[in-house]
Amino acid sequence: MSQNNGHNTTSLRLKTGLAEMLKGGVIMDVTNARQAEIAEKAGAVAVMALERVPAQIRAEGGVARMASPKIIREIMATVDIPVMAKCRIGHFAEAQILQELGVDYIDESEVLTPADEAHHVDKHAFTVPFVCGARNLGEALRRIAEGACMIRTKGEAGTGDVVHAVKHIRQIVQEMRILTVLGEEELYAKAKEHQAPYELIRMVARDGKLPVPNFSAGGIATPADAALVMQLGAEAVFVGSGIFMGKRTSCVHCEPKEDPKKDPHSYDENCAFAPPAEAERRARAIVKAATHFNDPKVLLEVSEDLVGAMKGLAISGLDEAQLLQTRGW
Amino acid sequence: MKIGVLALQGDFDAHRRRIEELGAEVVLVKKPEQLDGIDGLVIPGGESSTFLKLLGEEGFAKLRDYVRVKPVFGTCAGAILLAAEVENPKQAGLGALDITIRRNAYGRQLDSSIREGHLGKDPIEMVFIRAPKIERIGEGVEVVATEGCDPVMVRKGKTLAATFHPELSDDPKVHQYFLDLVANGRHAR
After folding, report:
1. How far is residue A102's CA from residue B46's CA, in Å, rounded to a whole number?
2. Furthest-apart CA pair in chain A: how many Å?
3. Count of domains in chain B?
4. What CATH number does residue B178 fall under?
5. So what's the ipTM on this one?
6. Closest CA to A214 of A202, A194, A201, A229
């Protein structure tokens, strides 16, 4: 293994380098090797391994933790595209385990139950690159200061409601735009206002963009949703529950399975999941939409192939306490 | 000079910036018909399996014809696409270069690295990200750059492929090499 860990430029360039390769693509949440296979076949640029997709976590409750290494290993053995996995906010021991396992990216994610109410993981201490969620520029820059090499909007995961992904990407883009027209002397106060390091504020003021790739996540469920956030400035999208979830959020067929490639689902009315053929169609459509995000003709074409989308939850109907996006500091 | 950069997915923007700095005009190519009217094409890094999905049958066929007559430069995933044979796993290649290339040959992201290699005799920085390796070089294919004992950039006529990412380094030499190839394309073989 090459020595590329630590707080140095070589390491940062390699970490953001992989994020560069994912631009314009779709990263899909998967919970087993079978779903990972479908995602790769449909053209995903990477998969995110987790125990339950956000919609299930939301429906079933309980403490959401890092996925089982056994399942992640199976997924890594099944696909040739990069495999990411989530750790809890501040849970550096989960991150150490994921790095040891050899995943390609770690998402320090608000979708899982936070492990530390004050601190995020010191991501400079790792060789493996990290992605973190953000709702605004200050949060994005705090994560970058800690060593995140990719930022994604938080949105509201597991809802299939794109409204907060839109809110967050608009917020970040607008706050960056404001910095570019300010005078040098005004940036110090902005650093204080955003609670972010002055050096990073200055970098954004100069370049008009984040120093790392800026992706979108949280509630993206259709090709049109993907096109929307890409047109608003996202450089790639994460799709969680939108591909594999069906009309229900809990499933009677979900039981521990011996063979990860064996499908325990019957995809009837009691099943939470979309039939594999439909999931693959959705996945393909979103992949095409991310590439041709500003071509309405292609967007119409791919939207017409779809028969449905996940049922979802309107965010406006959720209580503050049910929101995942407020996790992270 | 008008250079197309295949912009289906990947680090096409890094290539665009570099080529514009060197004074050429760039067209981001997303549709097969955009291949008409460009003097050369860059296929960037990204996920080669995703490129194949997004090209579709029509795009693949049109690109296969294009790379046989026009100057093309592929980096990493782009190099995989240009190869005649792809391993780990086997997948379709455009066959513009008679080489066998192995995907993810160094390992996973933890094995990505920045190393010094040689372009001809000149030392240059090389960024390898989940990089492939060229395992077999067919007749008439010339090794242009090496890292250790490995061939990492090869050329035949107007077709150029690198397993590393010159677009992620500050050194413009490799892109200049390609632009020269486009400019002198007619004399190259």
Report:
1. 20
2. 63
3. 1
4. 3.40.50.880
5. 0.94
6. A229
- The mean pLDDT of A168-196, rounded to a whole number, is 97
User: Which chain B residue is nearest to residue A44, measuring alpha carbons?
Assistant: B50
The predicted model scores a pTM of 0.93
Residue A86 designated active-site: yes
CA-to-CA distance for B50 and A41, rounded, in angstroms? Answer: 9
* Residue A42 near chain B (CB below 8 Å): yes
Residue ranges of domains in chain A, CATH in brackets: 9-183+209-245+259-322 (3.20.20.70)
Q: How much is the average pLDDT of A148-171?
A: 95
> Amino acid identity, residue A185?
E
Question: Residue A270: how many CA atoms within 13 Å on its side-chain side?
Answer: 6
Q: What is the pLDDT along chain B (189 residues), one digit of tens a residue?
A: 999 999 999 999 999 999 999 999 999 999 999 999 999 999 999 999 999 999 999 999 999 999 999 999 999 999 999 999 999 999 999 999 999 999 999 999 999 999 999 999 999 999 999 999 999 999 999 999 999 999 999 999 999 999 999 999 999 999 999 999 999 864 444
Say if A20 is an interface residue toward chain B (CB within 8 Å). yes
List the single best residue of A20, A130, A280, A295 to mutate versus B (max B Cβ within 10 A): A20
B8 vs chain A: nearest CA distance in angstroms? 6
| Sequence-distant (≥ 6) Cβ neighbours of residue A192 within 8 angstroms | none
